[in-house]
Design goal:
Elements (H helix, E strand, L loop, with lengths): L3 E7 L6 E5 L2 E3 L6 H15 L5 H20 L2 E10 L5 E12 L8 H8 L8 E7 L2 E14 L10 E13 L5 E9 L5 H13 L26
Antiparallel strand pairs: 1-2, 3-4, 4-5, 5-9, 6-7, 7-8, 8-9
Length: 229
């Protein structure tokens, strides 16, 4: 269903690398915020052609506020993904990779401590420990209805969305830090494919530099006038 591409990256100066499958579209979380806002505005305008300029701008600013909070929590990667399953279902969602400090101690015991600290209950909650190429990871799968503030989209009424999420948490082997990989989707009919995809992404985490680093071509295009001035 999926084929790995040359898309790869390192989390700043952290000793961590990751590889993403095809169909992932990274969001530049550390680049020019004005260019990112323009790109988000244009994308929303295409997806929601009936939205007013005020609604589009409100959505963009709301996204930037959420992104700022994620950055404070150690975000190193954010992307959306769009893939077609073998059953011709369109699987869409988001992926985020974050790094945070962890308590000192044996990294092999970190995953179990994460699960012990995670509260039981919730809708369709599943949790366990699996072994990935980079180490032992704690896995939590949950299905929950989350509120969607109308202000996020510039409309007066609030809404709700049912979201399937899976998180993988794994300790760095030589430093007191841990990485969290979280994927979310609203496509509940493709749960099996979604969990398979999430495992592939988590399995692409590495704490060793690749022997053959990838290179990516960059295409530069003329910038259009910005609605943000």
């Amino acid at each position: 269903m999926m084929q790995e591409t040359v898309t790869s990256g390192s989390a700043g100066l952290l000793p961590m690398w990751y590889t993403l499958p095809e169909g992932f579209h990274p969001i530049d979380v550390s680049g020019d915020y004005a260019a990112r806002m323009d790109a988000n505005y244009d994308a929303l305008a295409q997806i929601c052609p009936s939205a007013t300029q005020r609604q589009l701008i409100t959505s963009v600013f709301s996204f930037e506020a959420a992104l700022s909070k994620l950055a404070e929590d150690g975000l190193v990667h954010l992307s959306s993904f769009t893939l077609c399953t073998d059953d011709d279902l369109l699987l869409t969602g988001t992926c985020q990779i974050s790094v945070a400090d962890r308590p000192p101690g044996d990294p092999n015991l970190f995953a179990r401590s994460v699960l012990d600290a995670h509260p039981d209950g919730g809708t369709s909650l599943q949790k366990g420990v699996i072994e990935l190429p980079a180490g032992i990871a704690a896995v939590v799968v949950s299905d929950a209805v989350v509120p969607v503030p109308g202000a996020f989209f510039g409309v007066p009424t609030d809404g709700a969305a049912e979201v399937l999420s899976v998180s993988f948490q794994m300790a760095f082997p030589r430093t007191p830090q841990a990485v969290a990989v979280i994927l979310s989707t609203e496509e509940l009919g493709a749960q099996e494919e979604f969990l398979e995809l999430a495992t592939v992404v988590a399995g692409g985490i590495s704490f060793s530099a690749p022997q053959h680093p990838s290179t990516l071509a960059v295409e530069n295009t003329a910038a259009a006038a910005s609605p943000f001035g």
